Amino acid sequence: MILWKRKLYRILMGGIAPVVYLLTSDPLAPACICAFFLFWLLLMEFERYLHPGFWAWLLKHSPGIFKTRPGVLTGDTNFMIASFLSILYFPYPVAVSNLLFLTFGDAASAMIGSKYGRFHIFPGKSVEGMMGGIIINTMIALILAFYFSISFEILFIGVLVGSILEVLPLKVDDNLTVGIIPGILMTVFYL
Fold first, then answer.
1. How does pLDDT run across 133-184, given as a tens digit for each residue?
2. Spatial contact of 133 and 101, defined as CB atoms under 8 Å apart
3. Are the beta carbons of 98 and 119 closer than 8 angstroms?
4. pTM value?
5. Transmembrane region positions (predicted)?
6. Comparing C-alpha atoms, which of 183, 18, 1, 34 is closest to residue 110?
7. Is residue 121 classed as helix, strand or coil in its secondary structure?
């Protein structure tokens, strides 16, 4: 895995659904986009378990975008599950915000943490990476608060909770927890 390639891939692929949702205000198109990607990712997961050599082949022929040791499901599959559920169940401004936080906060914290991380909270997680994710997502929250006329405080709750979940060594993939739990909290405060 090459970190910058993986995070660029995540921003490009993960940013499609929230940008389409932001532009259309209609959940149908972004939900279909997520369903399309989720179908292919689940097919890949099935193939990975059915034919273990498939994963080795995919890693060898991918441009460094997949982790070499995924969990039960790859982070990409968990990411797309969280994206799909966010679009289906969260109000429009919360869903878009949550997906943008998930996409850009994850990339920022990984890139900044890998380059500048000196004070480690947990293995692979640093204070500097966490702060990088918070700063990027706070800037996004400021823009979205103005665009959606949603309280910045509600969005900031999502930013902080997502950042905390990102660094905790939970047994559940952080793409799933960071992609769903902040959205639930923002929805509760939004409604």
1. 999 999 999 999 998 988 999 999 999 999 999 888 888 888 899 999 999 9
2. no
3. no
4. 0.87
5. 20-43, 89-113, 134-165
6. 1
7. strand
